[in-house]
Structure formats: C-alpha cells, structure tokens
Task: structure prediction
Amino acid sequence: MTGATTEPGDPFGTARLREATLRAWQDSPTRLTEDTNVERDLRVGAYRDRLFVELAQNAADAAMAGGTPGRVRVSLVDSELRFANTGAPLDARGVASLASLRASGKTGGTVGRFGVGFAAVRTVSDEPCVVSVSGGVVFSAERTRHAAGIDGDVPVLRLPWPVPADVPPGFDTEVRLPLRDGVDGRALLDELAGNVADLLLALPWLAEVDVDGRVWTREADGDVVGIRGPDRETRWLTHRGDVVWAVPVGADGTPRPLEEDVLHAPTPTDDGLSLPARLLASLPVEPSRRRALPGPELTKALEAAAKEYVELVRLLPPEHRFALVPTPGFPKSTVDAKLRDEVLSVLSSEPWLSTQDGAEVSGRQARVLDVDVPGLPALLADLVPGLLAGSVPAQALKAVAVQVISIEEVLETLTGITRDPSWWREVYAVLAIAVESHALAGERLDGLPVPLSDGRTLPGARGSLLVEGSAELLDLLSDVDIPGLRLVHPAASHPLLERLGAKHADARELLNADQLRDAVERSVEDVRSGLDGTTLAGAVLRLIADCGDDAPRWVRALALPGTDAWRRADELVLPASPLLDIFDEEVFEEDGALDVLDEDFAEDWPAGTLKAAGVLDSFALVVDDEPHEPDHDLPDEETWWDSLPEPPSTLVAIRDLDLVADDAWPAALRLLAAQPETWHALRAPHGHAAWWIAQYAVLGGAAPNEWRLSDAELAGLFDEVPDVGLSEDLLKVAGVRTDLSLSTVDEAQDVLARLADPDRTISPGLAARAYDAVVESGFEPGDPGGVRTADGSVADGALVLDVPWVAGALEPNRFVAAPADPDRLSYLLDLPLAGEEPAEVTSEGEYAPWAGLPALKLVADQLGIRLPEGGVLVHDPLTVRIKGAEHDVQWWSDDRLHAADTSEGLARAFAWAAGRWPDRHLITALLDDPSPRTLLA
Result:
C-alpha cells in the first residue's frame, strides 16, 4: 500500500478520502477484504440489473435538490456510456457518499436511502467517472490496485480521484462509464429505453429523458401524468399522499387496470403485485433494494398505503371504479397477499361506491340488483338505499361485501307505493329490454305492480287490460268502478305487461269484456238502488262511438236517463224519433212500456251512438241465430211459432209492433219500409212481423188480411182495400190478400164466416177454392153457422159432394163442392158426405161390354185409351131414388156402373171406368161427332 497524497484541483477532498480509506485498509487488512466482497456482491448480485434505475434516481434527487424538474440524456460515445442530468451539482458530501459502500449522503426528501446504489455502475464499468459543474471524480480499478499495492479484485468505488469538470452544455452532471470488455453498449441503451416510461412515473422530478436521440417527456395535468415517448404516449391517473397510487388510463380517462406489476419502493423491486394499480411508496426494503423488508414497519406501511388506495378509486368516474377492485387469484408475493387483503378491507368499509341518489357508500353499505337491468337502478334510487348506479362485475360483489338483492325483493318494495303512471311505464320499458335480451326471465316479474285507471295498483299484470282509445274514453273509464275489469292506466301501458299476462284491449275488445257486460246488465238495478249511472253510461257510449257505433246487442240493457226515470236503453226513444207520432200515447205514460230519453243527455251524444246503444229512433229488430223456443217477448209469439211447419232456424223479427196506435199504421208501415233492416224482416219467409201485421195491424178499420188487392180474384169473399196511402208492394207485405193463403186458425175461421155470410155474393168457383184453402191450411176452425152451396147460396145444412154421380141427383143448393179433400171438409163443417147418402137405381138396364159398344170403341181408339175390363148397364132412361125422390141421371155407380143411353151418360161412365175422368167432356163430344175436327177442336 502507498501513502496518501494530495493532488492539485481537488475540490471535493478526494485525497483525504483516499488517505482515510487506505489507512483503514492498512490498519485492518480484513476491512479491505470486506469492502471487496461487498462491492462484488453488489456488482454481481443485488445491483446486477439496476444500473439505470439507480442513475435515474440520483438524477431525480439532483433535480429535486435544484428545485426544477430535471432532464436526463443517455448516450454512447465510442465505448463509453454517458448519463447526463440537470439539477444540483455534485458536492463533497455526495462524493463521500459515492465512495462509501455503507453510508448515504441523501437526506429524507430524496428517493433513495442508500448511497450504495451507485455501486450499480460496477456491473458494466471498471473506470466510472462523475463530472459536474462543481468538479469531477473518477474511480479506477487499476489505480486502486496501484494505490493499495495489491493485485486481483479490489473495491473500486472506495477511492475517488479528481478529474476536470467538462460537463456537456445544458446539463449539470454527467456519469461516464467506460464499458468493460464484453458489455454491449447498444443493448444497454435499448434496455434503458424499455424502462424509461416506468422511471418517469416513479420519479416525478424527472421531466425528460433522452436515450440516444429517443426522447420521453413527463407532463402532469392535475391527477393525470402523461408520459410521451417516441412511439406512444401513456397516461396515468395518480393519487399522491404519503404514497403514490397510479393506474393507466386512456385518452378519455377510462382506466386500464394492470394485470401484474411489482412493488415500487419507490423504484421497482422484485416483489410481484397483482393489484390493478401501481404502488410507489417509501417502504422498508432490504439493503439490496430488491425486496421489501418484512416486519411491523412494513405491515404498518402497507396498511397505510391501502387506506389511500380508495382515494385513487374516487378519482375515477363512478362507472369505472370497479375496475380497481382486485380480482381473485393467487398472490404473487407475501407483500401482494397482505396488500390485497388490506385494499379489499378498505373498499368494504370506506365510502367509494356511487349510489343512484348521488351519495357514496362503502361496499358493505352498497346494494346491487341480481340481474343487470340498465336504467332500473336510476328509477329505484329513492326506494332502495345504497343502490348502486350501473352494473357491478360479479367478481367484485363478494370481494367488497356488496349486498345482492333479487328482483323479487325489488317487486316487494314497489308493492303499495304511489308513483305517477309514467314512472311505471319507464320501469316497464327497462325491464322489457332485459326480458327480451334473456337477461331476466319474465316469470320473475309475476308480482310486478300495475297501476290501474281507477287509482288502484294491481299486484301483477295477469288479468289486467291494456286499453287503447281516445283520451275522452280513457278519462271516462278512469272514473268507472267495474268489478273485475282491471284497466291499466294509459300512461303506464307498455307491451311488457301483455307479455306478463295482461290482455290487449282496444275499444271493441273492451266493449266485449264479460265484466263490462255484467255491469251493463245490472246497471238499471244499480241506479234504482241509488248508485250513479252517469259514468258507466258515458264510458259505454264512448266505447260504442270509438267502435264506429257498432256494439253487441247486450248494451241495450245500459241504464240511461229518461224523462221520468233511468231505464234500459232499448226502452227509451230519441226525443226527435218518428215513433213518438206512431206509438200509442199510453206507451209513454208513467210506468208505460217506453220512455223518452232525457233531452240534455241526448244532446251530448251523436244520434248514431245512441241508436247503436239501443235507444229507439225507429223500429228495432229482435235477432236470434239459434232460436230454441218462443221466448223473445214478441206479441203472440207462441201462436206464430205453432203456425210454422217446423221451428225456425233463425229469427229476425220486429219488436214493439203491438205499441202502434190503430190510426198510425200507414205511417208505421212506411217507416218499416224505409229502413233496410226492418224491410228485410217484413219480407222474411214465414216471419213473425208479416204474420202479426197481417192479422193485428189496422188499415181502414180492419186488419190487412181482411182486405184484398184490386186485382186479386177474391171479389165477394174479401173487399178491396181502401186507399191508405200505401204502395201495392207494401200492402202485399202487410198482408193485404192476393190469394187464399191462410196462416192462422183465425184466418181459416174468418174465411168460413165470410162464406156463410148471406150478404156476400161469392161465385161457386171461388167458394169451392175457398173451402179447399181451409182444408189445405190444416187448421180446425169452429162451426161457421152456415155453408156456401154449389149455386152460391147460403144454407144451414147440405151434403159435401164426394163422388161426382150424386151431383146429377141433387139440386145445387143441396151440396157443397170441395174437390181437394171432401172427407176433410165434411169433418170441418160437420156435414154428411153425399156418397154416403142412401140411394137406389130404380130403372132396369141392359148389360153391355165396353167392347160391344162400337161408338165407344171408336172413341177409345181415337184417344188411345185401352178399353177397361167388363162393361156397363145401359138404361133408357136411368132413374135413381134419393132422399125420397126419383131423379133422371146420366150415370151412377153402386156395386155396378150404370149409364143412361146418351152420349153424356156413356161418356161419363166410360171415363170413370177407364180412369180418364178429366176427358169426359171430350169423350161426350166424340160420341156425338167422331170426326177428326171434333178431336182437334
């Protein structure tokens, strides 16, 4: 070892430092060994990859000491790595610190705690040099070996030598490191370039780093630190208190949580962290500065750091804060496990979660829905304390003790509350999106409250009605209490409710609701019991109006105000109805069949709507598509029903015909004809209306079926209808006769009475047709008291002609002719049959076979008639005794066939025998003149 020397230009007293160190080595040879071993350990162990971290930390300390954010430039000059920086220049204390492996010259405000950090330069250089505007020093392995007088490994950083201060312009200090053989300078520069951004974040007193022309800058804007590099820019949201917490953020402030990191104390250590944010804190670390130093001091420091973590979280917008909740996983170090536990504990107990009402709560105070329904939490803000805004990641719920509430619990909370209907619609709208996206099962909303138009709230949508219609309708319905009819308030109506069981109902569907029908059908009874029928009447009429005045028939039971009292709609007549002049005045008397609708009420509604409700303006119909019995309250309905050949398959009748005044029937018929519906009902085959009018209406003082039209061949039997101002078609429809059709027993009785009326002049043919009509009607009228005989006269008694030969033996005023069914007529008139009257042929006849009568044989040939078997008894003359008197007759039939020896007698007998009775007159003519002209004539 050589002695200490003093060199000129030594501002930092390096000679003294060298002298003291050499003396110590000399006094204690083991000290040299210890220093050599310590530097070797730092060079090859703890500081093997911390060169730039330590140099940057020293530059930051210098900048802080200088009071101005510093700049750093790193360059490679030949094979020398240079690290220039601005800030406080090197001083004697600093040089002493550089030359000490166990002491530091830094004060409490600087980043590092151990001056030994400069030992990192030994990983690349044996001749490190530091020059500053205040002077410079150099360390040299070769010079140290020479000064110590030894060979081999020596502690280079223990002996500094002064060098000239040639600092680059613009900088205050520069570290120069001639690189040891085998050290790649370019690789070192690239390694530094990869760490610059992290260094600028950790060292706030550094503002710019230039690495061989590649520049990084650091700018702070409030809590955001921006680090701009040559190829990208990074931004960090930071909280600075006793520690620094930082998280990367995007340009819009959105956090970009870290997936893994290391503890920065404040420069990087080897302790891995899994927190989403970076921690930079002055924590106790091992001398190597690579790991935190375990112990109570570290525990206390980590707990304090965790309490400040929530401040970083609060700097984020509420919707992004959950990004900083640590995710589950295995800890990356002992420090990571402790720090994660403490951070989660703080987030569970300290307020940081933003609620819907603008407050902040801790994790334990927070509430979140078990399904993510965007928009719903905002609507529940004042109903669910601590309800968070936005969704909460599932992994964060348990970690910070957030309480999860189910949608069913929310529905229980909503039950019974009072809110504006539009608020409910907003709730339905957000829930509908969740249901449609399958985020929420519709079955879970069975208890969703639904506000009704009448002010009630229904616990669940099932059974409610979503009503569409005019504002006036909805307003009217909101005041109507219809048991069982649950109308959703229109301002709350939403398609979701239909999906949950509500039924869509427009005005027509609502008008067909069973509950409304029940209310209408008991409305008169309700009004008479003291209830107000005005709201129900208005609602139903508005429904009818909204349906285009189309309504089911049961609405006719709706209670409406009349002149005297409330009555069914179909028992009221419009104030201007023509029925007021047609119906009998007694109809409108108190307790009469009808009343007049209140005039003021009638003015509030269109006539079409009132008529659709059943209020009468003209005659009304009774319609039954499947009638089963005569129970339609029509006049004489059972009688009409019994008169039909078979029960009607459908019924279309006209009501109130029995209310028409006797002198108003012409006007009534004109009114019936003016309406297509009633005109159609009048003309319905076998219809009740025509049937009843024909018998009970009054035209000219008699029923229509008691008159005939002028061209009807019924003269004498019926009188011509007088002029009542009706067309012939209308008279026909009303039942004025054109023929002898009989539809009731009364009509049959009337015809018999007319035939028995001696004051009437009736032709024999019409009389015969009339008797046939009575027979064919099938009715059984009573005894008319007289009969019309074959000569047109009226007699008290007579025979009913049932066989043709008797007519020749009786006077025409002694028998009644009814060719259709003489047996039936005999029964109806209680008269004997002519064929049953005792008679005797008194003359003698000669038998002649038909083939033995040449003239008849010729006629048969001419007519193509086959001669019958047998023959005839020919008399000259033929006489018969009947009723005590003998009569000459042309032919007769008893057990045998008889004929007078005349053309007429033979012809009639032959026609009867041959079954050609209608040809009897032709046969007579041919017997008299068998020439062809007779046949052709």
User: Anything to note?
Assistant: The chain has a mean pLDDT of 88. Residues 104 and 115 are 4 Å apart (CA to CA).
